Amino acid sequence: MIRAYKFLLRPTMGQRVALGEMLRDHCSLYNGALQERRDAWHHTSKTTVRYGQQSVQLKEIRAFDPERQGRWSFSSQQATLRRLDKAFAAFFRRVKAGEKPGYPRFKGVGHFDTVDFPRDGDGCRWDATPHDPVTRVRIQGVGHVKVHQHRPVVGRVKTVSVKREGRKWFVVLTAERPRPEPLPATGSVVGIDLGIAHFLADSGGGFVENPRHGRKAAGKLEGAQRALSRCKRGSRRRRKAVEKVAALHRKVRRRRLDHAHKTALDLVRAHDFIAHEDLKISHMSRAPAPKLDPGRPGSFLPNGAAGKAGLNRSINDAGWGVFLTILTAKAESAGREVMAVNPRNTSRRCPACGHTAKENRPTQEKFHCTACGHTAHADTVGAINVLRAGLVRRGAQPA
Q1: Is pLDDT of 208 > 70?
Q2: Do 194 and 200 meet the contact criterion of CB atoms below 8 Å apart?
Q3: pLDDT tens string 255-285
């Protein structure tokens, strides 16, 4: 089992400068490799340059520029080239699938924030000795950097990454650990229905309120964005305004992650089996397609884009995708089972008689069966139907 750990780095001023230079030089290598691929395609009869060819050139690049490229780990530079290769592989996959291609772009120094080390001990070594109270990570070209290790690392460290977030630096580890002992069985099963009014409703009639972290921080974000728009490009004042906007976004993200972790942990501890809807979140948050007005060429009919934009903001603010990812990971560690089911008609099917109709849900919250008269909260009904579908798929009897 592979698990990730993220710790805050506490570098000295000299180490901060060296870390910034490391990101700058890896960004330069990435952009140079991208430029070589572009030139080969446009000027050399559409020749494709691949990772193997560029990796072979690394030795010559390091010898030609020892001050900027020769001082860093060879394996980390190979990881940067692999990163570009993955970007091109994803580009060609999207082209073949008929999706929006998204050709790989050049990276600005301020947008290249991560350097990967594919193996612990090769260019970067995690040094957590039991007798030393201070944990350090040794980075080639930077030195031994202190780490704020707030929890123990279980297992053998496989890969190490150094990441910059604003003015802070982090180290991200992946460790291979044995599968932990599963939690004691509770005999409880549950279905959950994710929503906007409530973050989720469960099949037992419980609700978890939607914290709406993005909406609560919207006022501060709008003020910070307005202040940023008034700053002159390239000025010191603008750099400070950019940092303030980014800090507010990071705060919202941390709060959203904290809520997702706590909610998922409560579900995993209380239930052996958890069923949820298999939501296509990217499809649900798409902007509506424009509608041409046949009577007036060049004009468009109303398509509800303004209302859909508000719904999309609420969906993204809830963070369903992040929550389901965390829930699946925690359930795997605890020996629990999580299953996704088809969400079709889960909020329109009566749990008492099985009658399915659009009219069964007259409002967003109310469910009233037109066949048998059963009345309940619509989200609770959806959670019950999700649980039953999950148990059927699992091979058990419906609840």
Answers
A1: yes
A2: yes
A3: 999 999 999 999 999 999 999 999 888 888 8
Instruction: State which amino acid sits at residue 7.
Output: F
Which of these ranges, 227-236, 252-261, 389-398, has the smallest mean pLDDT?
389-398
* pTM score, whole prediction: 0.86
CA distance 236 to 387: 55
DSSP 111: G
Q: What percent of the chain shows pLDDT beyond 90? A: 76
pLDDT score, position 282: 84
Domain boundary assignment for the chain: 2-176, 189-215+243-394
Token digits for 49?
Answer: 């340059």
Beta strands in the chain (DSSP E): 2-10, 114-117, 124-127, 135-139, 143-148, 156-165, 168-176, 189-194, 198-202, 207-209, 273-277, 291-292, 300-301, 337-341, 366-368, 375-377
Kindly report the backbone phi and psi dihedral angles of residue 297, in degrees, each rounded to the nearest multiple of 5, phi listed first.
-60, 135
Residue among 283, 290, 292 at smallest CA distance from 311 = 283
Residue 203 corresponds to which tokens in the numbers above?
């099949």
- What pLDDT score does 285 carry? 84
The count of other CB atoms within 10 Å of the CB of residue 66 is: 10
